[in-house]
Amino acid sequence: MKRNRTVLIVLVLLAILAAWLWFNRSGSTIKGELRDFAVQDTGRVDKIFLADKDGRQVTLVREAPGRWMVNNRFMARQDAINSLLYTIKAVEVRSPVGRNLYNNTMKLMAAKSVKIEIYAGDENLKTYYVGHPTMDNLGTFMYLESSSVPFITHIPGFNGFLSTRYFASEAEWRDKSIFRLDPKRIVAVEILEYARPARSLRLTRETDSSYVVTKLSDNQVVNPTDINKIRKFLTAFQETFFERLDNDIKASVKDSVFKAGAFAEIRVKMDNGGEKQLVCYRKPVSGGSRLQIDFDGKDLPFDYDRFYARMSGDTSLLVCQYFHFDRIFKDPRNFMPGKDLVPAQQRFE
Is 8 helix (H, G, I), strand (E, B) or coil? Predict the structure, then answer.
């Protein structure tokens, strides 16, 4: 019995010694700073660079509290920024990668991983690589630059892997807002409906509580107008979104879309002289269209649920929903008191 106890003590001591040697072995020392992935004070972080093995890369820059830019071109999705900053702060090491998994892990990370560089001003706070999830999907392989050993990381209390929070696609980082404007600062709106000229209008602010609505087809002023309807119309520009980017459209289809010409154009002027412009194009019917034919069994001339659009200064082709833009495409008579004369549902009449 005494001998068994002695053997057990020796085995425990050997296990402790082996663990100590693993973390302090000469030639590949795992120092504390080379296993610490977290940045505790994310309030200092003002720039994040991400790059993947497919050649995609993004630079996220904090312009103001709650406002980040993607590649100095677009506003970033705040939900994705919040998720990444939380992960950067909360990530912890679960365990080092065992020697039996080392070679395979490094090969996989060399083939598919995302590099992240985290900055505060010109100071590089962290640089590491984010790899694939573990077999149980509860850990994520990560590798600190200049370290000799990859680690399995996690966020305590979170059951899942972290690699989906690190991505280098500009399109995925891009905020989906088209118009995010303060209605009180809008001084003029022009809606040009080339397919239905009678619905084209100009709304101009005269004072904080006085607006003029003009029918552009005959240059006649709409009178009287309902100020509550006008304010509701302007509120639509506070949060107007596109559904997605169409990056997979064939060149031939894209050419035909632009050749057909725009069916509408939206122009918004602000009190600081700034202007936003959205040009809208019909989207051809495709396999993903909800409606393919009309009530007579004839092919529809275009998608009745979605259209394409481009912002001024941006070559991206946006997919938008007519339903969402019903708040903007208004018949001028709808600004008069009483019930709307032309329901928004009559989009193509």
Answer: helix
Looking up tokens 């830019």 gives 69
Read off the pLDDT band of 21 (50, 70, 90): very low
List CB contacts of 1: < 8 A, sequence separation 6 or more. none
Say which amino acid occupies 43. G
- For residue 217, what are the β-bridge partners? none
Q: For the chain, how big is the Rg over CA atoms in Å? A: 29
| Alpha-carbon distances, residue 147 vs 9, 23, 36, 151 (angstroms) | 34, 12, 11, 10
Q: What is the DSSP string of 229-278?
A: HHHHHHHTTTSEE--EE--S--HHHHHHHHHH--SEEEEEEETTS-EEEE
Cα separation, 218 vs 201, in Å, equals 10
Give pLDDT tens digits for 4-18: 555 445 444 444 444
pLDDT digits (tens, 9 = 90+) for 23-46: 444 344 455 556 799 999 999 999
Q: At 37, which amino acid appears?
A: F
Least confident of 20-34, 69-83, 100-114, 178-192: 20-34
pLDDT averaged over the chain? 88
The Cα-based distances of 81 to 70, 100, 172, 185, 240 in angstroms read: 11, 36, 11, 28, 20
Taking the whole predicted model, whether its pTM rises above 0.85 is answered as: no
Mean pLDDT for the stretch of residues 105-130: 96
Judge contact between 149 and 29, C-beta under 8 A: no
The Cα–Cα gap between 139 and 161 comes to 5
Instruction: Give alpha helix (H) positions in the chain.
Output: 2-24, 78-90, 99-111, 170-173, 227-235, 251-260, 322-325
Task: Decide: 81 and 100 in contact? Cβ < 8 Å.
Answer: no
How many CB atoms neighbour CB 95 within 10 A? 11
Q: Return the pLDDT at 58.
A: 98
User: Starting from the edge strand earliest in sequence, which strands make up the sheet with 220-221, in order?
Assistant: 220-221, 210-215, 201-207, 186-193, 264-270, 275-282, 306-311, 318-321, 244-245
pLDDT value at residue 12: 44
